[in-house]
Amino acid sequence: MEIMDDYDAGFKAGKEFAQVKILDLMDEVIDEYRTHARAEKMDSESSKIPKAQFNAVLFIKHWVLNDGLTDEEGNRACLVW
Predict the structure, then answer these.
(1) pLDDT, tens digit, for every residue of 61-73?
(2) Other Cβ atoms within 10 Å of 18 Cβ, number
(3) What is the greatest pairwise CA distance in the chain?
(4) Angstrom distance (rounded) from CA 58 to CA 6
(5) b/e per residue 19-38 (b: at least 16 CB within 10 A)
(6) Rounded to whole angstroms, how far apart are CA atoms 46 and 24?
(7) Whole-prediction pTM value?
(8) By three-state DSSP, how is residue 6 classified?
């Protein structure tokens, strides 16, 4: 049983470490998008793709912070609505 406890603790620590690193990376991407938005006014027709990418990163960050999302049946899902 002790081996499984060690395994579970290591898995949990690894998951938390990965989440922190992913969140740090997403924060860098978000900051970069915001910098470009201020410089280029992300309200023009040509900014639709960068704006969509920015929104996708915000969604993914929310998804990671909330340990994923579930559908009506309790299954893990990536629901963008």
Answers:
(1) 887 787 777 778 8
(2) 11
(3) 60
(4) 34
(5) eeeeeeebeebeeebeeeee
(6) 28
(7) 0.61
(8) helix
- Answer for the pair 65, 20: CB distance below 8 angstroms, yes or no: no
Q: What is the DSSP track for the chain?
A: -HHHHHHHHHHHHHHHHHHHHHHHHHHHHHHHHHHHHHHHTTTSGGGHHHHHHHHHHHHHHHHHHTT-EE-TTS-EE----
Amino acid occupying residue 36: H
Structure tokens at 24: 């740090």
Residue 10 tokens read as 């290591």
> At residue 40, does pLDDT exceed 60?
yes
Q: Please answer whether residues 30 and 57 qualify as being in contact, where contact means their C-beta atoms are separated by less than 8 angstroms.
A: yes
Give me the amino acid identity at 39: A
pLDDT score, position 52: 82
Tell me the C-alpha distance between 8 and 56, whole Å: 31
